[in-house]
């Protein structure tokens, strides 16, 4: 039987209408090629004798079923250039004509029945109010940003600040009620009991053994202590430091680099001594690991005034650090510490006195602190009395469900401790603005997970604990992490940090926002980098290789050489003091909202694999130790990423090409690219994600700047031994780098293979 399209009823009575006058043989009928679209049916006059004897078997044998999914005749009728040349042939009234009329009446009745059913259906459903269609993306984004106002953030901050004297649980419960009221789903408050380090009942002290003078970390004498110093004590200790007392000579090791330590070792015995170390230029945990291996017993930390702008006076300021790399520390209350060193932060004023510096200023030029060559080294007693205690911390998590891909998550993280500043107010404003759009008909493509973390100051404990509990789901479902760790900690510099995958998106957003700068034209240009920074994003970037981004206003210039100053937690002014009009908060909220909107709404994730590959090649430039295989692998990765970005991603932005399964596979390839650069283990304080850079004028891979092993071997004074040990460390690092580049290239190639037949 021929499965052609419907023909006129007269044609059914005339078998010669199927005569080989069509000029088709059996093979031609089976060929679904384009030439079939130009066939024209010829009308053939058929006499009654032909009608009476029925169809010719030879003719019917030559008509084969169509292999087209729509049928041969339907394909012809779908051709806009097709015009049927069928003519109605006159014939006499016969019984078959009666059958034809009967068939027509039945067909007309069926059509009327279906039409009546449809009319009834639409009449019945017309009373149901349809959901308003969502506006276009550009209009929706504008409406979203217009709904974010400084006065709304100010109001939310005043409400949150009223809980400043309450415990962390009260603040978490407040956020829970707010998020439920705004319309988030599945809002939960999770509780974790963790071990935290706090100052002891008596302050930590530094005593000059020659003069027997006792100093507090601020630099004032112990006998001049006032009641207000108890509050400062909360910001003048190193969490999870070893405790007790140690005596030793002070050794100025500047920033604690390998070269600094080598110079000190050339003239001094470093065993059981106390190092005086500046923050900056390298991770604190890496410096402490070096000091411990070199035999030091203690360390005094300070910030050199020359490393911060003149507009900020830190001479007498104290600060706090944490030695916890993340999560609940793997120690118990009875004993054990994260380091064998006694560590204590001190003010620059006290550091200047202990190092016997002559002057910190030479006219208008700042002179870095350093012990004079001929100065007598002081002998001190360092006493640290920190206490370990168990404490409950609370996380708040809520969901704004996506429609098309609800199992793909974009996380937005904030913190609800006092040091978070306006973090909670901004995230509340974001939630209110987004849920307002969903009530008007907007459905995000992906799910947004809003998180407010507890225990951030002690080593990002809340984010680590929640991340580890949900790591299996996050590894396959997390798309990106947007940080609101401390969004406004100054008003001098607008800084953006992002993984290379998101650098282009972050730069575009920052550039657009600066066009309407709150300073009216005296605005800094885009300042975007992939610097490794402390904060709650570290678990997601460092453990899961989830692409991250963060916008923040800072008080200090965002210079690479001093970026690790942010490891020191200084007392911060309230959001109302820093930003009375909340215009800086509004700017951060709008930039974050635009990034979030793009990440949850764009059909193709706004990730740019070519930026990642160019970043890799840029870091390999001038690296003499890079092998030809490494360079060629990086070049191949660049070529494949460029082809993937132009031939796969760009066409997918065409609405006609948006096949759901195609889009999902494409986005999964983009999501997984950074995972290729995740190392199994690195040196203390160094990100496992190779794509993040450390301070320095020339970008380079952190694994080469701070090799994992041996920390001490590359500092041997014996040149032969140093060459051997350092060579092994560099070769191992280069091997890990090569493996990462080749893994990323295989992912790109696999992505191209998936779509080669599309």
What are the SSEs and their pairings?
Blueprint: H1 9-12, H2 26-30, H3 48-53, H4 57-61, H5 72-78, H6 95-125, H7 137-146, H8 150-161, H9 168-182, E1 185-198, E2 205-208, E3 213-215, H10 229-233, E4 238-239, E5 244-252, H11 258-267, E6 274-278, H12 284-293, E7 298-302, E8 321-322, E9 342-345, H13 348-354, E10 361-362, E11 365-366, E12 379-384, E13 387-400, E14 405-415, H14 423-439, E15 446-453, H15 461-469, H16 471-477, E16 478-483, E17 488-489, E18 493-498, H17 503-515, E19 528-529, H18 538-542, E20 548-554, H19 575-578, H20 583-601, H21 609-620, H22 628-652, H23 660-672, H24 702-705, H25 719-754
Parallel strand pairs: 4-8, 5-6, 6-7, 7-9, 14-15, 14-16, 16-20, 17-20, 18-19
Antiparallel strand pairs: 1-13, 2-3, 2-12, 5-12, 10-11, 13-15, 18-20
Transmembrane segments: 103-122
Protein name: N-acetylated alpha-linked acidic dipeptidase like 2
Organism: Oryzias sinensis
């Amino acid at each position: 039987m021929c499965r052609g399209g419907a023909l006129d009823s007269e044609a059914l009575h005339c078998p010669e209408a199927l005569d080989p006058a069509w000029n088709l043989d059996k093979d031609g009928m089976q060929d679904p090629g384009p030439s079939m679209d130009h066939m024209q049916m010829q009308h053939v006059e058929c006499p009654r004798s032909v009608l009476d004897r029925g169809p010719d078997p030879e003719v019917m044998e030559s008509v084969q079923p169509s292999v087209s999914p729509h049928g041969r005749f339907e394909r012809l009728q779908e051709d806009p250039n097709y015009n049927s040349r069928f003519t109605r042939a006159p014939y006499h009234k016969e019984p078959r004509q009666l059958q034809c009329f009967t068939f027509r009446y039945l067909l007309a009745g069926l059509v009327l029945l279906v039409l009546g059913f449809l009319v009834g259906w639409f009449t019945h459903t017309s009373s149901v109010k349809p959901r308003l269609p969502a506006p276009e993306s550009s209009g929706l984004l504008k409406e979203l940003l217009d709904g974010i106002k400084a006065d709304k953030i100010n109001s939310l901050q005043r409400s949150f600040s009223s809980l400043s004297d309450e415990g962390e649980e009260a603040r978490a419960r407040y956020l829970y009620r707010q998020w439920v009221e705004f319309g988030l789903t599945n809002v939960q408050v999770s509780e974790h009991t963790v071990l935290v380090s706090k100052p002891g009942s008596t302050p930590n002290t530094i005593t000059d053994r020659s003069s027997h003078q006792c100093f507090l970390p601020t630099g004032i004498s112990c006998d001049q202590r006032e009641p207000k110093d108890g509050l400062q004590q909360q910001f003048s200790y190193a969490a999870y430091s070893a405790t007790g007392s140690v005596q030793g000579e002070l050794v100025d090791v500047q920033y604690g680099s390998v070269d600094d330590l080598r110079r000190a070792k050339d003239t001094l015995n470093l065993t059981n001594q106390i190092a005086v170390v500046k923050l900056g230029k390298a991770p604190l945990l890496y410096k402490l690991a070096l000091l411990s291996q070199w035999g030091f017993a203690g360390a005094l930390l300070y910030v050199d005034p020359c490393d911060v702008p003149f507009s900020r006076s830190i001479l007498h300021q104290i600060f706090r650090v944490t030695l916890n790399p993340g999560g609940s520390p793997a120690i118990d209350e009875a004993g054990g510490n994260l380091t064998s060193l006694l560590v204590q932060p001190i003010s620059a004023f006290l550091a200047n006195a202990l190092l016997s510096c002559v002057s910190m200023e030479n006219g208008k030029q700042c002179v870095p602190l350093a012990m004079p060559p001929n100065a007598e080294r002081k002998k001190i007693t360092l006493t640290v009395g920190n206490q370990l205690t168990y404490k409950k911390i609370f996380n708040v998590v809520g969901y704004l469900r996506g429609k098309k891909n609800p199992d793909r998550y974009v996380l937005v993280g904030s913190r609800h401790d006092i040091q978070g500043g306006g973090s909670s107010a901004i995230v509340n404003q974001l939630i209110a603005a987004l849920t307002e759009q969903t009530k008007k008909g907007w459905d995000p493509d992906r799910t947004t997970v809003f998180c407010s973390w507890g225990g951030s100051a002690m080593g990002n404990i809340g984010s680590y604990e929640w991340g580890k509990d949900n790591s299996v789901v996050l590894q396959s479902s997390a798309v990106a992490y947007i940080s609101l760790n401390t969004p406004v900690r100054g008003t001098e510099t607008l800084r953006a940090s992002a993984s290379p995958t998101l650098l282009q998106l972050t730069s575009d957003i920052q550039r657009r926002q600066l066009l309407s700068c709150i300073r009216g034209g005296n605005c800094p240009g885009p300042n975007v980098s992939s610097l490794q920074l402390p904060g709650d994003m570290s678990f997601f970037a460092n453990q899961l290789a989830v692409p991250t981004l963060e916008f923040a206003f800072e008080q200090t210039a965002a210079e690479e050489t001093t970026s690790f100053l942010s490891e020191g937690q200084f007392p911060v002014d309230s959001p109302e003091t820093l930003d009375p009009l909340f215009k800086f908060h509004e700017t951060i909220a709008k930039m974050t909202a635009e990034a979030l909107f793009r990440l949850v709404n764009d059909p193709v994730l706004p990730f740019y694999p070519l930026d990642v590959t160019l970043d890799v090649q840029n870091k390999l430039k001038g690296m003499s130790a890079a092998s030809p295989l490494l360079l060629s692998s990086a070049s191949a990765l660049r070529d494949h990423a460029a082809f993937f970005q132009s031939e796969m991603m760009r066409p997918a932005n065409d609405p006609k090409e948006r096949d759901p399964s195609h889009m999902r596979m494409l986005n999964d390839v983009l999501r997984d690219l950074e995972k290729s650069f995740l190392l199994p283990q690195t040196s203390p304080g160094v990100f496992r994600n190779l794509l993040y850079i450390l301070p320095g004028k020339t970008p380079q891979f952190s694994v080469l700047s701070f090799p994992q092993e041996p920390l001490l071997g590359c500092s041997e004074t014996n040149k032969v031994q140093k060459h051997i040990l350092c060579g092994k460390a560099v070769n191992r690092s280069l091997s890990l780098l090569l493996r990462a580049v080749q893994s990323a290239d295989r992912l790109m190639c696999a992505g191209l293979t998936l779509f080669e037949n599309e």
